[in-house]
Amino acid sequence: MKLTVVAASGGIGRQVLDQALAGGHEVTAVVRNPDKLGESGARVVRADLASASPQELRAAVAGADAVLSGLGAVGKAGVGVAEAGTRAVVAAMRAEGVRRLLVVSAAPIGTVASPQRPHPPRHDPGEGPFMRYVLTPAVKRVLRAHYADLARMEDAVLACGLDWTVVRPPRLTDGPLTGDYRVAYGQNLRGGSRVSRADVAHCMLRAVGDPDTVGRILGVAH
């Protein structure tokens, strides 16, 4: 398949890129700094997703069978990139007639308010007591701005009219690719407090061709 990987030099994006290339796919990598990729073997399109216009991204998505995005803020200065970059990617995809979009969000986002969902549920139905009353509230306080950005990104994705999938992992680790992870539709996973970036990438690539994941939010965890 022809795949476009957005934020391909980031933690999850690089894993998607490497696994896609290893799987024999033809890959276009969208990055702000191509030097971070080295000799990856992918076609590279340079773009700053915090400010890129849809027109700048059309060449990156043209002809793609799917677009996979690992966009997310790194540090406070990057807050806003998930929403802004995703909206630009969506507009570019619609202009080029590309339908399949997969994005990474985060496990707590189902309980984060957004313009399109001002009154979300207080708790995710898949969480156990420790996650529900201790860990998730603590993490949401620390990452309030980051999660608000991801919630607005999800608003954009859910309203985009494309064949979308949102993947919501919990705490990310740099562990190896195992393929041994759990997936739940529309909720988080009981006892699932972490997952490796490599396994999140594997989940996204596996979902590309799975029609059951279209228009669905996936919880993924070890």
UniProtKB/TrEMBL annotation:
Pfam families: NAD_binding_10. Transmembrane segments: none annotated. It comes from the Bacteria. InterPro entries: NAD(P)-bd_dom, NAD(P)-bd_dom_sf, Polyketide_Oxido-like. Residues 8-211 form the NAD(P)-binding domain. One of its GO terms (molecular function) is riboflavin reductase (NADPH) activity. SUPFAM superfamilies: NAD(P)-binding Rossmann-fold domains. This is NADH-flavin reductase.
